[in-house]
Design brief:
This protein has 393 residues and is mainly beta. 8% of the residues lie in helices and 34% in strands.
């Protein structure tokens, strides 16, 4: 791969999320570490007086130990798998009316080993590809009215066919040699953020800048997009108007990664992930949308924290985390809930597989996330009814 910025946590996640890691690749927000071994600790947070997740066992259960099902039932009910026809699928978001979802997935024997963007109706289960079909895509999101979407794509790269063929060849070679290739997400210089009208199919390039532009999401009022870009030479966060105008830089931390940003429901803050303390050891940060008041919400460099997403009250987030303290153990990612004012954290998932990239439905009664549930199957998308933790307990 070319022009890549290696993120170790992405490397780890790849092997965890696939039945045959050597044959697959993944995007910047579709990432976890290399497997599903037991965790021997819980995420610590220097901002919390009681930082150990509440109601969580010290170790992740084995596949044959069904105690994890009971543990999850405290906060998750009616768990349902939404995708199954893909090699892998993940990073899903709801439409404003909650009737559809948008996500990225790899189609078997399609001629393209990289993710493309799909929209699926939740009632019928019917889905359709909306992205061009060539190149890489990632990080899709609905506009406020649900009539358009944004996603990042490299389809204008004149060499997309070359890179696709090269990736298939590498997978075959890895399979032949029984080798699990070390993975790094390619921050493709042709990656731009596009808006697509779902009725006409017309696409508009919103970023049009040299270098990587991706990981975009809208403010709740639909007027602004926050995204990641390396247009300054470092992977920083930027905010632009929904039509791509008036781009302004949000973070100013050279030589590290800042990504996966989301506006709070009231639009006053942005939550994101960054490896400020140590390369590849992602932590969660919050910053005011005017660029002031940046604050680290996690600080344990033995853990990796990422994929934060806001709850409706602007005080809580749900996120993904795993213990990386033992270099010989394969981390197991789970979902956690945090009060960003007190730092109090509660574990939500307990499955033996990877649980990552959580989001809430528009009414905040459900969560949707990417998971390998049993630890062996490729990642797919799941949904469940959600009961928030009772912080009085």
């Amino acid at each position: 791969m070319r022009y890549f910025f290696a993120l170790g946590f992405l490397t780890i996640f790849l092997a965890l999320t696939q039945s045959d890691p050597a044959q697959q690749t993944t995007g910047p927000q579709d990432t976890t570490p290399q497997n599903s071994a037991p965790q021997n600790s819980t995420p610590q947070n220097s901002t919390s007086k009681s930082s150990t997740p509440q109601n969580s066992p010290r170790k992740s259960p084995s596949v044959n130990d069904n105690s994890w099902i009971q543990a999850e039932s405290v906060h998750l009910k009616n768990i349902k798998q939404l995708t199954k026809d893909f090699v892998r699928a993940g990073e899903a978001y709801f439409s404003p009316d909650g009737k559809d979802i948008i996500y990225q997935a790899e189609v078997k024997d399609s001629g393209n080993p990289f993710y493309q963007i799909f929209i699926q109706n939740l009632d019928s289960g019917k889905y359709r590809r909306i992205s061009p079909g060539n190149g890489r895509t990632t990080c899709a999101y609905f506009t406020k009215d649900g009539k358009s979407v944004i996603f990042a794509s490299s389809h204008e790269d004149p060499d997309t066919a070359k890179w696709q063929k090269q990736e298939y060849s590498k997978r075959e070679e890895d399979k032949k040699n029984n080798r699990h290739r070390r993975y790094s997400w390619d921050f493709d210089p042709y990656m731009d953020i596009y808006q697509m009208n779902l009725e006409s199919g017309r696409m508009t390039n919103l970023t049009k800048s040299k270098g990587y532009d991706a990981e975009g999401s809208f403010s709740q009022d639909g007027s602004q997009i926050v995204f990641c870009s390396n247009r300054t030479g470092s992977l920083e966060l930027f905010i632009m108007n929904s039509d791509g105008s008036k781009v302004r830089q949000l973070t100013h931390t050279p030589n590290c990664y800042n990504g996966g940003p989301f506006f709070s429901p009231d639009g006053k803050k942005v939550i994101f992930r960054s490896d400020r303390k140590e390369k590849d050891r992602l932590q969660i940060y919050v910053i005011n949308s005017d660029g002031t008041g940046e604050k680290a919400l996690t600080s344990n460099d033995k853990w990796v924290y990422w994929a934060p997403y806001w709850y409706k009250d602007n005080r809580h987030i749900i996120f993904t985390a795993a213990d990386h303290s033992n270099p010989l153990a394969r981390p197991n990612y789970d979902l956690y809930w945090m009060n960003i004012e007190t730092g109090k954290t509660t574990r939500i998932t307990h499955a033996p597989g990877q649980d990552i990239l959580p989001v809430f439905s528009p009414d905040y009664k459900k969560i949707m996330w990417t998971s390998s549930r049993d630890g062996y199957s490729p990642v797919q998308i799941y949904i469940a009814d959600f009961t928030p933790p009772n912080e009085d307990n």
